[in-house]
Amino acid sequence: MPELPEVETVRRGLQPAMEGARLLRVEQRRPDLRFPFPQDFAQRLAGRTITSLSRRAKYIIAEMDDGMALIMHLGMSGRFIVTDPQGGAREPGDFYHPDGRERTHDHVVFHLSNGATVTYNDTRRFGLMDIAPRSALAGTRHFKGMGVEPLGNGFDGETLARLFAGKKAPLKAALLDQRLVAGLGNIYVCEALFRAGLAPKKPAGIIADRKGGPKPAAHALAAIIRAVLNEAIEAGGSTLRDYAHTDGSLGYFQHRFRVYDREGEACLKQGCGGHVRRMVQSGRSTFYCATCQK
Residue 147: inside a domain, yes or no? Predict the structure, then answer.
């Protein structure tokens, strides 16, 4: 499933085409994705102007001029394809691959006032689209109880320590708990813990003192999480399995992994001498170096 950096990369790819454009027509080609579409989905969107395109965790939110918002989630295999008014594709990146999507899985097509079209393709149909009042987004089923945004202004060492204070759950599990920190996924949690030198099985509470204040490790971990996510966004994400940008190009961050998917290889931390190991936590692979992650 695309993680936060991949979703942010998709948002940035959609922004030039969708933000400020009016939805002339919306084609809804099936009654449901993971869940049924809202009643009168296409009709409610037609004629509306997209005033802004934002992201919350792994959701993309298109805010409309009538006070409503279109909520979109890619699921396992969802992808957007942007076609310009001349029918051509954007200039692809270095890791471009031919568009091999099956048109039978083109489930939603947005026809925009600037002449572009945006097509949502989803082979497994685990994605979703919903409509909700912009003012009530925080209380919807998608965002209710969702944790702090790791790239938001409120994410720092103090916040992380407060959230994790007294918790005996493993650090990795706590970071993946969407009720605590929203949007972090397996890949980037492995990368962040490695860079921070923290063992994924250690209790989450070790980064806080007895009063719930931040230890140095809390400040370091928060800063590293931000850095890893921002590096991945700038590089275009990890591009595992069938994820691709809106222009068909692949991301670059997979070539910068320092620990993820490197089982048995030498640790890249200078002077370490250890090797990357793999273990399973909550059904997910954790990659770490037992020598330098304490």
Answer: no
